[in-house]
Amino acid sequence: MKVRNVLLELDNIQGTVLNNRPMPYFGAYVAFSIEDATAARTMLKRLIPRITSCADWAAPKQHAWLNIAFTWEGLRRLGLSPDILEGFPVEFRQGMAARSAFLGDVGRSDPSLWDFPHGNNGFHAGLLVMASTAEGREEILDLGRHALDGLDGIEVTAHLSVGVPPTMREHFGFVDGISRPFIEGQGGEPLPGQGEPTKAGEFILGYENELGELAKGPGPEVLWRNGTYAAIRKIYQDVAAFRTYLRQSASNAAGEEKVAAKMMGRWRSGCPLALSPDVDDPTIVDDPQRNNAFAYYEDDLNGAKTPVGCHIRRVNPRDGLQDTMAYARLHQLLRRGAAYGPLLPEGVMADDGEDRGIVLALINANPGRQFEFVQSQWVNDGDFVSQGLRSDPIVGRRDRSDDFAFPDKPVRRRLTGLPDFTATRGGEHVFLPSISALKWLSQMQGNEA
């Protein structure tokens, strides 16, 4: 497969945009409120020398990674002019809390119950911190604290530590982070299963996208080129409810694992059902030439192996929509997931009251047709795969339908009464400017931009 010669300006793109996180790692999300633009610009000037670019990712300073993002309200408070601000996508301008009904953040996920701030109540700028050790994380957090020394009008409003659990799996027990698109210009060659390289403009502004257009933003080119958007989601995981439902849906441990695999589309080891539909085969996971090397159209269009309504097939339909009106390549996301909170001990079926879950950073250049489309149409609505109102069995809303069906032997199986295994506890669209854009923003005077 030939990869077109697209030159990405890696030294000007914030590192988390294109790179997988190290394993294991110790990270944090830190949210700030901005009450004084001058103080915010001073903080930014202090932080810029330590921001990690894609070019620096493989060998970061002190084995720690630091990136920064802004909400629309944060950019307004930083001093961007109204005509530039009005040119940003409507999803970014309104903020995720205002779009909760469309996104399915209802019931237990309603923004009134969120415990992480959003753009209209104290989240104006945020640091994404990662390190290879817990000590390294504290050192980079200290750097962020020192950036506030002597400054009034900017305060920390939330802090959430994240990382990889000791099991190297997320809280429901699944190996995470196996599949991702391959992007033109990122270097190297696609792995089996990644498909044709995706146009860089699907994830980074300033490059051609899948529509053959230049992905652009508002205002001067220095502000938007090499920048991108991320949909940040704090998702609580009800591990006890998940384990209890598996126990109630099967007669033995093997049956529980099968139900979990059918809902996810992979065994908990990460082995795809597409390559081993009847039994788990962890040896497949260890081989990057095999663990993602599958498609649906030729071999499993109707979901006999990987159910059409399962989680991985909803968020990445691959070639499974080939004969439909949907064009899946317009709705791709780069997914970054990190766990938070303590593990629920193995075998425990009762909730212990601890907050645990995952924080997602979903990278996209067009929040409307990428993240919000996937969340509203593919995660929370089943029409695109002839599933009616059925939602994602792992992370979907339950107020319109609470069942999940999949082909089985000797007869098709239908699971009913799925509870809310997850609940949104925070969410916001943020903008990650390029390194040069950060410098430009830090040098603004008043509202002159």
Short descriptors:
2 domains, 13 helices, about 450 residues, about 20% helix, four-stranded antiparallel sheet, alpha+beta
Q: What characterizes the major β-sheet?
A: 4 strands, antiparallel
Provide the domain count. 2
Parts with pLDDT < 50 across at least 5 consecutive residues: none
Helix and strand sequence: EHEHHHHEHEHEHHHHEEHEEEH
Q: Quickly count the helices.
A: 13
Quantity of strands, as a count: 10
* Structure class: alpha+beta
Which strand order does the major sheet show? Answer: 2-3-1-4
Q: Which range best describes the helical content: under 10%, 10-25%, 25-40%, 40-55%, 55-70% or over 70%?
A: 10-25%
- How would the global form be characterised? globular
Mean pLDDT: 95
Strand content: 15-25%
User: C-alpha Rg, in Å?
Assistant: 22 Å
Report, as a whole number of angstroms, the end-to-end distance. Answer: 44 Å
